[in-house]
Each structure stands twice: as C-alpha cells, then as structure tokens.
Amino acid sequence: MKNNERALNPEQLEVEGKSAYEEKDYQQAVDLFLAAEEGYRLKGEAVKAAEMANNRCVALIQVGENQDALDAVKDTIEIFEQAEKALLRAMALGNRASAYEALGQLDLAIDDYEQAEQLFGQLGENDLRLEVSRSLSALQMRQGKALDALGTMQAGVAEIERPTLKQRILKKLLSLPSRLLGG
Q1: Which residue stretches of 1-145 are H helix?
Q2: Quick one: pLDDT at residue 163?
Q3: How many CA atoms lie within 13 A of 40 on its CB side?
C-alpha cells in the first residue's frame, strides 16, 4: 500500500499498530500509530487522533523514547476532556504518568496516577483502577512511602466486586497490617 493510501486509511493503520504492539514490535507500532494519528487528523477526527497518540505514547515508552512519549500524550488529556470522554481521559492520565515516571519526574507521575485512579473509580472501571493503583503503589514504595503504598493498594482492590483468586489473596494480605496495628 502506498504511503498516501495508508494515510487515508487510519482504521487499517490502527489495527496494524495494535497487532505490531501485541507482537512486541514496538518501533513498528510507533510508526503505525503515528500514521494512523495523522490520518485521523486529516479526516477531522480529533478524538481518534488523540487515541492514536496515546497508543504511540505507550509504544514509545517500550522503546525507551520517554520524552517523545510525554510529547505524544501531552495534549490528549484536554482533547478527551473537551469531548467528554472520561475513560479516555483517565487512560491518558495514566499514560502521561508512565511517561513522567520513565523520565524520573516522580511527583508529576504521582499526581497523574492519583487523578487517573480517582477517575477510574468514579467510572466504575475497577480493573483499570487496580492497574493504576499498582503503578502508583510501586512508585510510592520507591519513594519510601510504605504506608501510602499500602493504602493505595487497599483502595485499588477494595471496590472490585468479583475479585479473582489472586485479587482475594491480595485483599487478605493487604488487610493484615491494619489488623496487626489494631485498625
């Protein structure tokens, strides 16, 4: 397919980008998501273009291009907010947090992870909230904030209605410190 034809078919580029990502061909995924983003932008589909920028951000982190990842995601949060796409906004916050974390900007990462976690909770997206809670908790542990990390993980698993066996075990383990301290 010629480059100009591919630019006019962002849907196919998106599918190919996701496939490349799943196959761990992250650089190819970056290139395909960028082409899809440009194609959606040409079609006037700002939200889809922003989604592709977020996908590109995740792939860029995988190839260690952390500043480019941050640059890719920086404007998408506002686009999703204006379009009233709360779930996409929460995902973008999580992606930006990952980019900040990869760049060593830990306080900014924590702020974004906390916002994403709260928004996923409000949306009832408890599995996504748990994913963000894990990242936030690990970051808090790296900063020596063990009690904050514990609280974050407890909050992350608390709202899961039908926890898996692994999640039930995690819930039980996380409740131990509180019980030991008489809480």
Answers
A1: 3-7, 10-22, 26-42, 46-62, 66-73, 76-82, 86-102, 106-123, 126-142
A2: 66
A3: 20
